[in-house]
Each structure stands twice: as C-alpha cells, then as structure tokens.
Amino acid sequence: MEIVKRLLEERVCLVTGAGRGIGRVIAEQFAAEGAIVYANDLYMGDMDSWAKRNAEKYMTRMIPVCFDITDEKAVKQSLSQIMKLEKRIDCLVNNAAIISNQKLGMIVMSEAEKMFKVNVLSVINMIQIVARLMARNGGGGIINISSITATNGSAGQVAYSASKGAIISLTKSCAKELATMNIRVNAIAPGIVKTERFEELYESDGEKIDGRIDKIALGRLGTPLDVANACCFLASERASYISGQILGVDGCASI
C-alpha cells in the first residue's frame, strides 16, 4: 500500500499572529499537513496546551514562540533560535496585523503609524532576517497576508487599506529581489472571513456588512480554513514556480 506523503511533511514553518483567528487555523492546517510549526503570538494565552493537542493529533511538532514582531532584537533572536534548533526555516507566514477602522477625516495619525509599524515595517524586517537564513539552505517560501481592501479599497478603512496595499507592493518587489536565492514570495488577499473580529464588527455595523456579503458571488463568507488551505498550497512544492503573485481568497468578490 502506497503511503501518501503530506503536503508539508517535516517542513519548518513559522506563522505569526497564531494566537487567534486566521493565524491559528493556518498553524493548525500546517500541522495537519505534516509541518513542524513555530506558532508566534504576542502573548502566550492557551498556546502551550493548544500546541500540544495539535502536535499529538497530527503527529508532528508545534512550538509556541512569543515575541513582539515590532521588536527587531526579539525577532532576530527568535528566528536565530529556530535556525539553531532546526537547521533551516522553510516557510514564513506574515499573518500578524492590527486594524483600526476610521473614516478619512477621523484618522488619528499615532494609530495609523502604529498600524504601519505592525502591518508593514515589521513584515519587511521579518523578511530581511528570514531571507538570510533561508538562503543558507537553498531557498524557501514567504507568504504575506494582505486583504481585499488593498485591491478594492474600502470606505472607512483608508489607513488599513493603505497598509495592506503596501504588502502587495513589497511582496512583488521582494519576489524579484529574492528569486536568485530560490526564495518565493507571494501574498494572499482574503475577502470577508468569519473570525472573532468579524463577529465584533458585525455587532457594530451589521447592515453595512450585509451589503458587502451580498456582493460575494459564491454566496457565502470565507472561513479561516479557506485562507489556511491557500497558504498550504503556496508553502508546498506544488507552488515551486509561483512567486510574486497575489492570490485572492474572496469568493469572487473582487471582480
């Protein structure tokens, strides 16, 4: 009987913002596909017990790593430690982000600056460091999480849309720069995904969100698993000739 190899068997993957929402499901799905998962978040919370359950369930290793992605020293130390332990990093998913929804005239610059620091500058720093480590072992894959707001725009989300638009631009530029090192860089632009954050937004402005849901051609909200499955594909050898691409996971809402 032929044994089917899992999509990410024994690949060393780091997922940021894995404490909740989409990031948590990405980490779980990577583990299900056989990856050795380093799950990052700012706070430990229940990550120890959660990681242990997934490691046992999927017969792999899942290791929580808590650090602030905006802390350059902490990032460098954590990635160096992973490299020391595993001898390689095969995939990085830049998922961690913050969101502050404000109309143009109400944008608070200090909040916008914080959002860009987390959503954009920290991603550049993560890529700078991990690219050097990946290059030592012949390459790897980087996946950045953008948003449909970056491709379509969204009233009331000017600063957030701009930060996610920057992710698209840096993804394409990094892909060109890092191709010679066999490092692939892609982005995923999710549409409306039903997460804890979505539930909070729906409570505050359900009527507006219902209007956006009506525009989804496939007739349903996205799920974190939809995004996670796309990440698994881009992290795998099946995507070995794909780089610099922005994959919309939005139920055909962006066209």
UniProtKB/TrEMBL annotation:
Family as reported in the entry's similarity comment: Belongs to the short-chain dehydrogenases/reductases (SDR) family.
EC code: 1.1.1.47
Oxidoreductase as UniProt keyword: yes
Designated name of the protein: Glucose 1-dehydrogenase
Chain coiled-coil ranges: 75-102
Keywords: Coiled coil, Oxidoreductase
GO molecular function, one term: glucose 1-dehydrogenase [NAD(P)+] activity
Keyword Cytoplasm tagged: no
SUPFAM superfamilies referenced in this protein's UniProt entry, alphabetically: NAD(P)-binding Rossmann-fold domains
Domain of life: Bacteria
